[in-house]
Design brief:
The complex is a heterodimer of chains A (398) and B (338).
Chain A: H1 2-9, H2 22-54, H3 85-118, H4 123-137, H5 141-152, E1 163-165, E2 169-172, E3 175-178, E4 180-183, H6 189-215, H7 221-239, E5 244-247, E6 250-252, E7 255-257, E8 260-262, H8 264-290, H9 294-302, H10 307-337, H11 349-361, H12 364-393
Antiparallel strand pairs in A: 1-2, 2-3, 3-8, 4-5, 6-7
Chain B: H1 2-15, H2 24-31, E1 34-38, E2 47-48, E3 54-55, H3 57-70, E4 76-80, H4 86-91, E5 97-98, H5 106-110, E6 114-116, E7 121-123, E8 125-130, E9 144-149, H6 153-164, E10 169-174, H7 177-186, E11 191-195, H8 196-203, E12 212-214, E13 222-224, E14 227-229, H9 233-251, H10 259-265, H11 269-274, H12 291-299, H13 302-309
Parallel strand pairs in B: 1-4, 1-5, 9-10, 9-11
Antiparallel strand pairs in B: 2-3, 6-14, 7-13, 8-11, 8-12
Helix pairs in contact in B: 3-9, 3-12, 9-12
Classes of the chains: A alpha+beta (398), B alpha/beta (338).
The complex binds glutathione.
Residues 39-42, 82-83, 101-103, 149, 152-154, 176-177, 194-195, 198, 222, 224 of chain B line the site of glutathione (GSH).
Chain lengths: 398, 338
């Protein structure tokens, strides 16, 4: 349209008239920007490679297939010094994911407790919660990790003086040594029973909700579900004749042999992350609850709801809308803070990859990029999930 | 913090227009001080003394280079590096040189883009255990928990040694030497492994130094020495010869105390060249003609430095052994100054 308009008016002008079209020009600018950007990236990449070459620094990703030659303190995958750098990356990523996911769950639980406790009418409880928040929030996390590790866990008794719990679980400076379950044939029945229990609980929950909506009759879903989740696997275990045996840790030579061990480096990192983040989450939760007007609580009370019910059914669902967005940042913080693992020698992806591997291969750019990719992916996933959740619980305006 | 270094390195690598980072000497002169990468603290080799100044056998190499370049051994900014952070620090230009008990290996020379300028200490990897364990040989260590520093040749040798001897071990891996020391001391691991010089140094810092023994096995060669970035040969020459000057000084019997007197009276042509009395050898490095004189005057010869910081009369107590001059049955040897 516009193009024709211009031509119509300025037919004498040359064929470049379309350049005066705002839309065409906008596209041109964008194409140009992209081209310039690509050129700049290309130039930088080319320069980088050339500089690495002149300085005699290796580049590329072929090193991922080479054996690492070093051992690792903890691995969820089979790993030894003949494993490849690529595998050590996976080990690191899994360890990071383990700390981050456990950390998020535990910090959320503790954070909610703390937030609610701070608002409690019980003077002592609310003061204690308040003190905890102030204390933990104002000490740098790194210090807390080091304190927990060197100040607490590394002062546990030595190997030979382990604290024993019933002669099967041992606690000492090298960690917690516990019996490891060994699965026997027929074990599959137990997880199957558990899955059935989960499905049944879900069904009961939906049924109870519908019934309450229709008849006003509440149902103790929680108890029923708990009974199912514990009971069904237990029954399955009995019927199949206890298809699990345990391998107990025994002190032999230098160490406990057998069983499984939770290393103190992991515990220190996880505990510090949870304690630290929970203090922030506690504040977020407190703010969220305070944001729900007191009238709501009074209304709930006058309907005859108890304390717990008021909190669970009226206050928290509304508070969540305030809580979720800042909660997301706390989760992101926790994940990124888990990279302080190196301070206590926990082999997370940062310590393994931008520490050891980078050092042994000298390929800083590749290693750092791969580590950044991990955090980028985790953070984006958390954000996506929380945004989705946020939309789900958002107030539906009528 | 470390990430900043990498970032700087990435940006530097991306922007520097295709020259091999030449001109370190000019940069150092312009800056007015030498940036020297040292350990975060290893008694005798590099650690702040009671006046808060860095001192030690490795530190003396930094001081020698500063004395050669500026005529002033104090013009050094020490940059503490861990085993992990040292290489990115050098690659990115955060330091001009590393003098930090770093083993000269093929990979570091060839793949990491460095040039080692010499060997300041011939070492080998060893194991330290508590006496109470009653271990007499490293071959009895099957199943032991071993504390080791990450990013070292140590952790690779450790894995090799146990594999070669069909033994297993549980590694506990830290980034800083003092973390390892505390953890080992408290009993987190049975064994502490690193260079034997490092073990001797760390032992002096333990709560009860006499409770520990270093096992007889030496499982590797660890030639430790100063290194610079690959590709800047002029700067490599400066560091190499500042270090060699300390060796030649010992060969010729020149010490910090007698250098003035030797300078005034010596008839030995090599000594006269070295001290800038004869010829213009010093200026060929784009330095003052008598730079070796300043190195010797301010830092001393290699033997003096050894005895001062790590020798038998110090708490570290390392016999000179192979680290003696070649003329006294050791391996320390410098090409001639001519
Ligand atoms: N020579 C070995 C090990 C060097 C090393 O880092 N040694 C440790 C233990 S003796 C150290 O000096 N650490 C001091 C620090 O991290 O600041 C290497 O070059 O990889």
């Amino acid at each position: 349209m516009a193009v024709r308009g211009i031509e119509a008016r300025g037919g004498r002008r040359n064929g470049l008239a379309f350049l005066y079209d705002a839309r065409v020009r906008a596209i041109c600018y964008q194409v140009l920007t992209v081209l310039l950007f690509l050129l700049a990236v290309g130039y930088l990449a080319h320069n980088t490679l050339q500089n690495l070459a002149t300085r005699g620094i290796a580049s590329g990703f072929k090193f991922l297939y080479q054996p690492t030659g070093f051992g690792l303190a903890m691995s969820l995958l089979p790993y030894d010094e003949l494993s490849s750098y690529g595998r050590s990356y996976l080990v690191g990523v899994l360890n990071t994911l383990l700390v981050a996911s456990l950390g998020v769950v535990l910090a959320t639980l503790l954070g909610f407790l703390v937030g609610i406790a701070r608002l409690s009418n019980n003077w002592l409880l609310s003061r204690l919660a308040g003190m905890y928040v102030e204390l933990v929030r104002n000490v740098p996390l790194l210090l807390q990790i080091l304190l927990l590790y060197f100040g607490v866990l590394q002062t546990l008794p030595s190997l030979r003086e382990s604290l024993s719990i019933g002669g099967v679980v041992f606690l000492n400076i090298r960690g917690v040594f516990a019996p490891a379950p060994i699965l026997q044939s027929g074990f599959a029945a137990i997880p199957i029973a558990f899955a059935v229990a989960v499905a049944a609980s879900f069904w009961i929950w939906r049924w109870a909700r519908r019934r309450q909506r229709e008849t006003g009759q509440p149902f103790q879903t929680g108890w029923a579900a708990a009974a199912l989740l514990l009971g069904l696997p237990a029954v399955a275990a009995l019927l199949t004749g206890m298809p699990v045996s345990f391998e107990y840790p025994v002190l032999q030579g230098f160490n406990f042999q057998g069983g499984f061990v939770i290393i103190p480096e992991f515990v220190a990192l996880l505990a510090a992350l949870v304690l630290y983040t929970a203090a922030f989450i506690g504040e977020v939760v407190r703010a969220g609850i305070l944001a729900v007007s007191h009238g709501q609580t009074e209304a709930a009370r006058s309907l005859g709801l108890g304390d717990g019910q008021t909190l669970r059914l009226v206050v928290i669902p509304q508070a969540l809308r305030v809580i979720v967005p800042p909660l997301t940042s706390q989760y992101l913080n926790l994940t990124k803070n888990s990279s302080l693992a190196a301070a206590v020698g926990f082999p997370d992806v940062v310590q393994i990859f931008s520490g050891t591997v980078l050092n042994q291969t000298g390929q800083a750019i590749e290693c750092v990029a791969m580590v950044m990719l991990v955090y980028f992916t985790i953070s984006l996933s958390i954000s996506f999930f929380m945004n989705w959740y946020n939309r789900r619980i958002a107030l539906v305006e009528r | 913090m470390r990430f900043v270094g990498y970032l700087a390195m990435g940006v530097a690598a991306a922007l520097a227009a295709g020259q091999a980072g030449a001109g370190t000497l000019d940069d150092v002169k312009k800056r007015g001080s030498l940036l020297c990468g040292v350990t975060t603290g290893l008694a005798g080799f590099a650690a702040p003394n009671d006046k808060g100044e860095w001192a030690g056998f490795d530190v003396d190499v930094c001081r020698a280079v500063a004395a050669a370049v500026f005529g002033d051994a104090t013009k050094v900014k020490y940059v503490p590096t861990t085993a992990v952070s040292r290489f990115p620090a050098l690659q990115s230009g955060e330091v001009d040189l590393l003098s930090r008990n770093t083993t000269w290996t093929y990979d570091r020379d060839v793949k990491l883009g460095f040039d080692f300028v010499g060997v300041s200490f011939y070492d080998g990897q060893g194991f330290m255990v508590k006496k109470g364990l009653n271990v007499k040989s490293a071959l009895q260590l099957n199943g032991a928990t071993v504390c080791v520093q990450t990013g070292t040749s140590t952790e690779l040798n450790l894995a090799d040694y146990f594999r070669a001897n069909k033994m297993s071990y549980k590694p506990v891996i830290y980034e800083k030497a003092d973390e390892i020391r505390v953890a080992y001391d408290q009993g987190r691991c049975d064994v502490y492994t690193t260079d034997r010089s490092g073990l001797a140094a760390q032992r002096t810092q333990m709560s009860k130094p006499d409770d520990h023994v270093v096992l007889p096995e030496v499982i590797s060669k660890e030639p430790l020495g100063p290194l610079v970035r690959h590709g800047d040969n002029q700067w490599g020459d400066v560091v190499r010869w500042a270090f060699n000057a300390m060796i030649i000084a010992e060969e010729k019997g020149i010490t910090a105390a007698n250098v003035d007197q030797v300078k005034a009276s010596s008839q030995d042509p090599e000594v006269r060249r070295l001290l800038g009395v004869e010829g213009d050898f010093g200026t060929r490095l784009s330095l003052e003609n008598d730079w070796p004189y300043k190195v010797i005057k301010q830092v001393g010869n290699i033997g003096e430095s050894y005895e001062r910081h790590i020798g038998p009369k110090t708490p570290i107590g390392l016999d000179r052994g192979v680290n003696n001059l070649w003329s006294s049955g050791g391996l320390v040897y410098s090409p001639p100054y001519r």
